Amino acid sequence: MSSKKATVKDYISMKVKPVFDQLIARIVIEKPDDVYAWSINWLQKQQKGSQLLQVVNHDLSEEEEEEEELVLEIKQHQKQQTRSAVSAEVYGEYNKKEDFKPRYIQKSEGQIERIKKRILNSFMFQALDEKDLNIVLGAMEEKKFQVGDFVIKQGDDGNELYVIDEGRLECYKRFAGLQEEKLLKTYIPGESFGELALLYNAPRAATIKAIENVTTFALDRETFNNIVKFSAIKKREQMEEILSKIELLQSMDNYERVQLCDVLREEKHQAGKTIITEGEIGDRIYLIIEGELEAYSNKLNEKVYDYKPGDYFGELALLKNSPRQATVIAKTNVTLLYCDFNSFKRLMGPLEQVLQRNMERYEHYLQQ
């Protein structure tokens, strides 16, 4: 009898609870009027997505599997998690924020300003209102690491996320079937890491090692869960949906898109605003979310291009290592996402590698 009970308990923990945890979290975020109909539709989409993922995984090459494994592993942990339930957070602390008592760590004015400057570079904190932002600033703790220190290790439980103030770190991932770890990227000041374990209640997905003396600001799990988590999940999903519609990014895999989400910034401009000027040195690539823009050539003295949502511009300055080729002006009010060239190249490699996948569009530019 006890064996049967244990089996049922394991089945609920492994199979049932993760699905309902995710469903409850999505319901709280979306707040549908018809909860029953919305839930049925959501579950059907998850089932189709799982079936499609199995087909895609079957056809992936060995190289593609390595690139996809990090994101897929996180999602698998999300489905199979046996840790504290998201539902507890949703119906407990999340719905009773007034009961949450965030930690407060005394800091100097200079430290607070440095932390604020750093965390506002991360998409996770950009949607916070002033009150929640101040709670996060108060809860942040300065932590220092020496060269060679492991800040987090793959497979460990994660209780904090880190924002880098000074120094560099390297991110390594151990893939199934490989004896050696693979270097994924180098983190620099202003970037954050460690949030995936908190967002998805999963073990650490990679190992982060200091290659210089490092100063970070750490945010605890409890403050993250109560103040940041749900807005961060929604923000990431919105960004990924937007990026999936941008032509330039169609050939990027899921892992590349997730990485790009973390460095993209949003800005809004009124109609008539000049975004880039012909002849100036450019250091940003722009993605158009809303609105229309026009490109003018002073050399030709005419309009050369109309931009609409889903288009992008500014990439030729990097591709050809030359000044801006045209002046781009907002025709209507616009919402743009932008990424500096250094971040783009560091995350995705040289832009040319991405553009080679879209060579038909660029062939006439390269011949000029």
TrEMBL record:
One of its GO terms (molecular function) is protein kinase A catalytic subunit binding. The keyword Aminoacyl-tRNA synthetase does not apply. The keyword Nucleotide-binding applies. Keywords: cAMP, cAMP-binding, Coiled coil, Nucleotide-binding, Phosphoprotein, Repeat. CDD domains: CAP_ED. GO terms for cellular component: cAMP-dependent protein kinase complex; cytosol. Residues 124-245, 248-365 form the Cyclic nucleotide-binding domain. Residues 53-80 form a coiled coil. Transmembrane segments: none annotated. GO terms for biological process: cellular response to stress. InterPro entries: cAMP-dep_PK_reg_su-like (IPR050503), cAMP_dep_PK_reg_su (IPR012198), cNMP-bd_CS (IPR018488), cNMP-bd_dom (IPR000595). Pfam families: cNMP_binding (PF00027). Belongs to the cAMP-dependent kinase regulatory chain family. This is cAMP-dependent protein kinase regulatory subunit.
